[in-house]
Amino acid sequence: MIERESQITELESAVLYPRLVLLEALTGFMDKPKQRAKSGLAICEARRDFLDSFAYLCDVEKGGKTVTATGLQRLEKDNQLWLAANEGIRDDILIYANDILDQIKSATAETQSIIQDRIVALSVEKCKPRIQVYKTAVQELALKCRMALRRVNRDDAGMCGIAFVWADAYSGS
User: Fold this and answer.
1) Is a pLDDT exceeding 60 seen at residue 164?
2) Which residue has the higher pLDDT, 113 or 19?
3) Hey, is 63 helix, strand or coil?
4) Among 35, 109, 114, 169, which one is most buried in terms of CB atoms within 10 A?
């Protein structure tokens, strides 16, 4: 169902490494990522959305160590789903990805909601490291927001106090 690339040979690393060094050197001059062009075919867009979403679900840790991309290869009898990662596909990720695919394959119109709930539960459990990164980032942003609101409230209270003193001075009190 899901294949992973065999170990890189010495020849491949002799060819690949200099190219990666060149890519790294040129990266600073690259444009920002561009949106891919729409195909105009609903089935093609649905396939792309599925592959993007599947890659995201399988990228259980931030940083590209788990899954960074997916691809679909059409074969005569069956299609092949490929996973790519910066550091190879770990066995636990393969098992997890196959569990998701098994759930999807067993889905029917009647069981769709149940299958979605199972996949969400499976994903939340497996993606705890990624979720923790997001949780920490949201907590930091929330703290900054609370601090900014406190400063605004203090400034508003100070301005109100000044306004009351000013109003009292003109009213003769």
Assistant:
1) no
2) 113
3) coil
4) 114
Any residues with CB less than 8 A from the CB of 66 and at least 6 apart, and which? Answer: 58, 59, 60, 85, 89, 90, 93
Contact 64/56 with Cβ under 8 angstroms? no
Alpha carbon distance 45, 131 (integer Å): 27
Task: Please indicate, yes or no, whether residues 62 and 140 belong to a single structural domain of this protein.
Answer: no
Q: Are residues 53 and 84 both part of a single domain? A: yes
CB atoms within 10 A of CB 88: 16
Q: Which domain holds residue 160?
A: 128-173
Per residue in 40-74, pLDDT (tens digit) is 889 889 999 999 889 888 888 887 678 878 888 88
Residue holding tokens 């306004």? 163
* Domains in the chain, number: 2
Domain co-membership, 16 together with 46 = yes
Q: In angstroms, rounded to a whole number, what is the distance separating the alpha carbons of residues 2 and 80?
A: 7
